[in-house]
Amino acid sequence: MSNPILKLIAQRIALGLLLLLAVSVLIFAGTQILPGDVAQSILGQSATPQALANLREELGLNAPAYVRYFRWLGGVLTGDLGTALSSRQDIATAIGGRLWNTLFLAFWAAIVSIPLAIILGLLAVRYRNGWIDKTISGLALASTSLPEFFVGYLLVYFFAVKWQIFPGISTVYDGMPFLERMKAIALPATALTLVVLAHMMRMTRAAILNVMQSAYIETAELKGLSPFEIIRKHAFPNAIAPVINVVMLNLAFLIVGVVVIEVIFVYPGMGQYLVDHVAKRDVPVVQAVGLIFAAVYIGLNIIADIAAIVANPRLRHPK
Amino acid sequence: MAKAPANGSGPLLDIRDLRIEAKVYPPGEAPRTITLVHDVSLTLEKGKVLGLIGESGAGKSTIGLSSMAYGRGGVKITGGEIILNGRDIRKGGTQGIRALRGREVCYVAQSAAAAFNPAHRLMDQVIEASILHGVSSRAEAERRAVALFKKLSLPDPENIGKRFPHQVSGGQLQRVMTAMALCSEPDLIVFDEPTTALDVTTQIDVLAAIKEAIRDTGVAALYISHDLAVVAQVSDEIMVLRHGKLVEWGGTQQIIKEPRQEYTSALVSVHEIAHEEKKPGASPFLSVRNVTAAYGGGKIKVLKNVSVDILPGQTLAVVGESGSGKSTLARAITGLLPPEEGSITFAGRALGNRLADRSRDDLRELQMIYQMADVAMNPRQTVGTIIGRPLEFYFGMGGKERDAKVAELLDKIEMGRGFIDRYPAELSGGQKQRVCIARALAAKPRLIICDEVTSALDPLVANGILKLLLGLQAEEGVAYLFITHDLATVKSIADSIAVMYRGEVVRYGPKSEVLKPPFDAYTDLLLSSVPEMEIGWLEKAIGGRRMASAGN
Fold first, then answer.
1. Which of A131, B5, B58, B459 is the most interior residue, by most CB within 10 Å?
2. In sequence order, what are the beta bridge partners of B213?
């Protein structure tokens, strides 16, 4: 590893941290602009002015906004995400288990969808413009075009109601045996796979097709390589950067964008937690979850950037 | 050698009545089939070299690639037999064709820089075909590759294979590609313009390396080029092609010394334009004084203390290889790259360094023509709009007056008024360059900077452009700053010459003096590297060199 590449990576990480800081300001400002008063929503309409004033004092709501921001930021940096207003529970503890559940679901959806998408993309390029390519592209487009809740309900109708293979409600709990857990997440993971598959597959196809125009593909053809070898050995390594980018975007979606799926399958993950607490106007929870989602999103994109840098031989092996 | 010919003693390659067609999709018209190669036949004996020569569109590459049953894009071989080692390869099916590619026939592309996969090390690519076809084990193939690197006089042959393509210079890559073609010990190599993209001083090295490798390995070759002088150095026989038809086929000596066809004679005498040097009487109207210019905020100095003068109505040619600072000099004069030091005086007054400091009239007086005519024009404007633009911009012309002037300019570039409503995409390469010349001329400049304006053109077309430029100079009295790496062009057009090397002017003066011995080492190298239409020139030139070219 040489100097310029380390410098580039350090730059990306520094930029990511800066971006995260900016996002934290936005989240905090956004929740401040929301109408309503936290003390009022906790105590209800019938609260006496004295009780409201006491609670405001207790929650530190009378301090200026920037003081509250730094207090919040300081807490976040030390691992204290605050206390949920509605349940009076420690947010960090409540999130811990749910974040794990969300990651578990995302992990299995990714394990299935990423290799599948890339293999389908390679196949589509190999048989481009033939019926295999058109079938793959058509099915993939159809599965993306259907809204995820519709896909979810379709799966529930067939697999849970009609054939009763998998449960329609994905209840998981601590200490659940692994196989049970896998069975519980089968349907939401499938729904997620169908949602992200097409995007990754089509990007893989487009990125490789772009490379297939290059002169070195002709060189490979004139060496007598078979079409699939050409795609695998000569085209794919040069298409890796855009593919990684779209894979990371979809990974981020699997973690951040699962709200609808989690609600449909009543899966105890981050998304459901967020939706519940938005309904309850529980601002500290919304802030904490928003920040975690932002961190995941930025983090994955940094990884994509770094992977693209490392995948480039010109940067890896300077002159 | 790969396989013994099935019938014992026949030729290695025997192409009979080859017909190649392509489907084209002209905009707004129904797709139609055009014939690229019309029933061409050729035979090539083992170990011999056949040169294929002609301008672009002659079908040289298409014929060359047909020996591997390969058609670029939508190109299809539709008729004839291609008999390689005693069998018709078109009957072999996909498997049969794949088995011969990279094994019996290998290919060396024009741009090795583009033909190597940027993601893999050179060695892996060089030995790929050998391993794929089971010619040898990896270790054995690597040993042979290193031996070939040595034979092609690549620096550090033991380790160059560990490098990635972007870490190796263009001339070296071209030689690595030759090694790649030789590595699987084929019977035939197709060289497709292997030295065209290289500097003239590098070309000679690569050419010598290729020739030696062909001689020592006994491989047969189809050598494709548009430069007859280059082909004459390596070929036993030469085939002249035009518009996909055979013009003439004969021994090298016969083709270059006693051409039987008119077209062949035109190719042979292409570089000869007699140009009388003008006397340097008048005082210069543009003087470049001690100009130093740099890129990257002064870090990379590309021009060092350069001084040249341009006389009214005369041509200063600036020659040198790529990276010598020729184009940077043009950018400094036009104000696109403000010099760090030095000054440029124009008609007795100092010219603003930066483009923004110059008046519209200053801009009008200096016009430019570029190497790539097609990217120097807006593809969505008609020829009339393109040439009319400077008339509107500098002279405020409009309507009939402008149209009349555009028509007059089209006459001057020998194209006629019928072209006014055409788009650049409908023009040939030479016509595009003519439109660019008309556009420059429309501004009534005193100086036109021509940056490699003939380099991308076929020799005969380039010749036409040079004659046009000379004619316009006589008519309009315009001066040229003519940037080129091609010394033959310089001899045809220049009144004075500046030779540039690594950002400095190493030799400067009237043409007759610059081209008169004794030469400095670099000018000598440059002059001796220009291929001559003479068998045995290559060996003589290599033998008599005093310095190595900068490309190494």
1. B58
2. none
DSSP symbols for A152-209: HHHHIIIIIIIS--S-SS----TT--HHHHHHHHHHHHHHHHHHHHHHHHHHHHHHHH
Q: Is B279 contained in some domain?
A: no
Omega before residue B510 within 30° of 0, cis: no
The strand pair at B315-319 and B341-346 is best described as: unpaired
Compute CA distances B511 → A119, B36, B191, whole Å: 64, 43, 36
Which A residues in the span 254-273 are in contact with B, Cβ-Cβ below 8 Å?
Answer: none
- What are B111's two structure tokens? 């741009």
Spatial contact of B93 and B100, defined as CB atoms under 8 Å apart: no
Produce one character per residue of B338-347: b if its CB has 16 or more CB atoms within 10 Å, e if not.
Answer: ebeebebebe
Q: Is the ipTM of this complex over 0.85?
A: no
Angle among Cα A313, A317, A318 to the nearest 5 degrees reads 115
Position B458 in a domain: yes
- Asked if the structure places residue B335 within a domain, the reply is yes
Q: Supply B99's token pair.
A: 């088995």
Q: What is the CATH number of the domain that holds B110?
A: 3.40.50.300
Residues of the domain holding B449: 286-516
Mean pLDDT of B457-472: 88
Q: Which residues pair with B222 in a beta bridge?
A: B50, B190
Task: Give the three-state DSSP class for B338.
Answer: coil
Q: Domain A102-277: give its CATH superfamily.
A: MetI-like (1.10.3720.10)
Q: What is the DSSP letter of A235?
A: I
Instruction: Determine the distance in angstroms separating the CA of A316 from the nearest CA of chain B, rounded to an integer.
Output: 10
How many Cα atoms are found within 13 Å in the side-chain-facing hemisphere of B100? 27
* Same domain, yes or no: B446 and B360: yes
Based on the domain organization, do B245 and B381 belong to the same domain? no
- The answer to whether B311 and B288 are in contact (CB under 8 A) is no
The DSSP 8-state label assigned to residue B419 in this structure reads G
Structure token pair of residue B6: 């099935």
For B170-205, what is each residue's pLDDT tens digit?
A: 888 988 999 999 999 999 999 998 888 788 888 888
Separation of alpha carbons B488 and B485, rounded Å? 9
Rounded alpha-carbon distances, angstroms, from residue B143 to B105, B159, B224, B225: 21, 12, 29, 31
A214, A224, A317 ranked by CB distance to B129: nearest = A224
Tens digits of residue pLDDT in B133-178:
999 999 999 999 999 999 888 889 999 999 999 888 888 898 899 9
Beta strand B87-88 with B75-84 is antiparallel
**∠ CA B113-B119-B122 to the nearest 5 degrees?**
60
Please report which helix (H) or strand (E) contains residue B307, including its range.
strand B300-310
Q: Where are the alpha helices (DSSP H) in chain A?
A: 3-33, 38-43, 49-59, 65-77, 91-126, 131-145, 148-155, 178-211, 215-222, 227-229, 236-256, 259-264, 270-279, 283-311, 313-316
- In angstroms, the CA A202 to CA A200 distance is 6
What is the CB-side half-sphere exposure of residue A267 using CA atoms within 13 A? Answer: 32
Label the pairing between strands B479-484 and B315-319: parallel
Residue A85 has pLDDT above 80, yes or no: no
**Ramachandran region of residue A82, left (φ > 0), alpha (ψ -120 to 50) or beta?**
left
pLDDT at B549: 54
Tell me how far the alpha carbon of residue B467 is from its chain's centroid: 19
Alpha carbon dihedral B111, B113, B118, B122, in 10-degree steps, equals 100
CB–CB contact B129 A238 (8 Å): no
pLDDT of residue B49: 94
Asked if A215 lies within 8 A of B111 by C-beta distance, the reply is yes
Do B228 and B298 lie in one domain? The reply is no
Contact yes or no for A304/A249 (Cβ under 8 A): yes
> Residues of A with CB below 8 A from B115's CB?
215-216, 218-219
Residues of chain A contacting B107 with CB distance shorter than 8 Å: 219, 222
- Tokens 């990306």 belong to which residue? A12
